[in-house]
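Dear support,

Our group has been running a series of protein-ligand predictions, and this particular one with S-adenosylmethionine is the one our PI (initials K.S.) wants archived with full inputs and outputs. We had some confusion internally about which version of the output was final, so please treat the block below as the authoritative record. The input we submitted was:
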Amino acid sequence: MAENLVVQLASIVEPLKPPTLFPKTQPLEVELGCGDASFLVEYAERNRGRNFVGVERLLGRIAKLNRKGRVRGLANLRGVRIESAYFLQYLLPPHAAAALHIYFPDPWPKKKHRKHRLINESFPALARQALAAGGMVYLRTDDADYFQQMNEVFGTAEFFEKVATPAELLEIKTDFEREFNAQGIPTLSAAYRNGE
Ligand SMILES: C[S@@+](CC[C@H](N)C(=O)[O-])C[C@H]1O[C@@H](n2cnc3c(N)ncnc32)[C@H](O)[C@@H]1O
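Confirmed final output from the archive:
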């Protein structure tokens, strides 16, 4: 197994070559803003026939992905420390991902800060570039206003269709989700499929 599951980027302008990151070439799924990576580590352990990349901008959090993934011996998990939209636009080769997971992205609740939200009207084009045909976008948040925006941008985007989220995916909770749910705040979730 790799010494370090965090990808050491030789360049931030050259796209990654996903098959070189993992021992096995398998379908690739990406979590954007993976935080402490509890979801991704559990999901990668349950799905060893797929490869996973967690994208996270904070050093301490990507270090947790590394530690947890190594403890569980996950050869199918890697972390990249970088900004999520930049990763999709410049580092992930086109149509390389079978799924994007975006769970509890920073909600930027103040109206004047909403321009900082990751999921905005530009995001479906980035997601479509990243996804293979038939690829999935899985979304979760606690924030009703952000959830409405997510559904508006994907609901009106050409090529994406709303589908049900698999129960076996929903049963794996993220760190933030467990905290919100413990306070009685429910999870809002949606899934969109990238059409042919
Ligand atoms: C609210 S936390 C949710 C973490 C995790 N998805 C969960 O549900 O437990 C949001 C995470 O996304 C990261 N983040 C926020 N904006 C980001 C961006 N533009 N690029 C990469 N990471 C980002 C933050 O550092 C943080 O770890």
